[in-house]
Write a structure and sequence with these properties.
heterodimer; A: alpha/beta; Rossmann fold; 6-stranded mixed sheet; 3-stranded antiparallel sheet; 9 strands; about 35% helix; about 25% strand; B: mainly alpha; Arc Repressor Mutant, subunit A; 2 domains; about 65% helix; elongated; AAA+_ATPase (chain A); P-loop_NTPase (chain A); ATP binding (chain A); ATP-binding (chain A); ABC transporter ATP-binding protein (chain A)
């Protein structure tokens, strides 16, 4: 087991508001990890910092020893919500862009994923439903050869069939040494898939445990996660 | 296949495969599906399947042929033991449920006999 990602003493402010503070995290290669937390807890910001999209943070983020954003970006795959493409852009044009930008983008792999997800390359982004957009994001993300894949709430607002396809694509296409970090505010849909769980609360990482550790205590991941948030509801 | 979320999944995969073997769905000496195929079939992580298979390898229920995959043991004694363990599990659940219904140990066999006889008459 090798160390993939190390975050130490990370803090981040935006418009003088503390979004993250004292974040420490270590992930190994070859894992599927959930990043859990309620909306506003700081999950997306943490993802964006790891991805090298959000800058000007304090602390260290190192991916296989690389701290510079450019080098980190080359080792990880993250699709930032397809922002930057106009609504009239066709799927095939987005793919063209990815091929030009990322030297590790595997066109054949994208074709396989695209067929598996049943996406029509002629469709415009404005024509895509929420589920189709998520499927496209996942197809693009997994078509790169990377050590770390970041998926930000891939299951929000999509139906059970699309979810099943996305989960199967993770099982099928994840390479053994690659790690996937999936953020969600609801754990049930992916709990059977997880090696580890990282819980974000109050702008920092509260706990990091393996799924087996949690279940060996006869607790489901959902109960565990809800337990960490329970005191708040009582107030 | 639905898993309980409060028991380690690798243990449940083990139980699932024991059952497949006891039911003859997987036979002695037969190659079991690949790790990825099982992961997809059960909708679980590849690492979790690997952990379950490793445990079964350690217990001797499965053996690995290098480069070929995992096979069910041909040791009939071990297979019988595995089947007996599953039967014991079922009996344990049965006895516990009957106890909750107020049927004490000494009443179990008469209750069972009565039930089996009435089934025969149907």
């Amino acid at each position: 087991m090798t160390e993939l990602l190390t975050i130490s003493n990370l803090s981040y402010k935006k418009n003088q508001k503390q979004i993250l503070h004292d974040v420490n995290l270590q992930l190994d290669s070859g894992k599927i990890v959930a990043l859990l937390g309620e909306n506003g807890a700081g999950k997306t910001t943490l993802m964006r910092i790891i991805a090298g999209v959000a800058k000007n943070y304090k602390g260290q983020v190192s991916l296989e020893g690389e701290e510079k954003e450019v080098q980190r970006k080359a080792k990880l795959s993250f699709t930032d919500n397809l922002t930057g493409f106009s609504d009239s852009t066709k799927i095939k044009d987005v793919v063209e862009f990815y091929i030009n930008i990322f030297t590790d983008f595997d066109e054949n792999q994208f074709e396989e994923l695209r067929k598996f997800m049943k996406l029509d390359p002629e469709m415009k982004l404005s024509q895509l439903s929420r589920g189709m957009k998520e499927k496209l994001i996942i197809a693009l993300t997994f078509s790169r050869k990377a050590d770390l894949y970041l998926l930000d709430e891939p299951f929000s607002g999509i139906d059970a069939m699309a979810r099943k396809r996305i989960i199967n694509s993770i099982i099928l296409w994840k390479e053994d040494q690659a790690t996937i970090l999936i953020s969600d505010h609801f754990v049930n849909e992916i709990s059977a898939l997880l090696d580890e769980v990282v819980v974000v609360k109050d702008h920092t990482i509260l706990e990091h445990k393996t799924a087996d550790e949690i279940r060996e205590g006869h607790e489901s991941i959902e109960e565990y996660y809800e337990g960490l948030y329970a005191d708040e509801e009582d107030e | 296949m639905e898993f309980k979320d409060n028991i380690p999944i690798y243990l449940q995969i083990e139980q699932y495969l024991y059952r497949q073997i006891a039911l003859g769905e997987l036979k002695a000496g037969e190659k079991i599906p690949s790790v990825r195929k099982l992961a997809l079939e059960l909708t679980v992580n590849v690492n979790t399947v690997q952990r379950a298979l490793q445990q079964m390898n350690d217990k001797g229920i499965l053996y690995t042929k290098r480069g070929e995959g995992n096979f069910v043991t041909e040791n009939t004694e071990l297979l019988e033991e595995t089947k007996q363990a599953l039967i014991n599990n079922e009996l344990e659940t049965f006895v516990q449920n009957m106890n909750r219904l107020g049927v004490e140990k000494d009443q179990l066999i008469p209750e069972l006999e009565q039930y089996l006889n009435s089934e025969d008459e149907k």
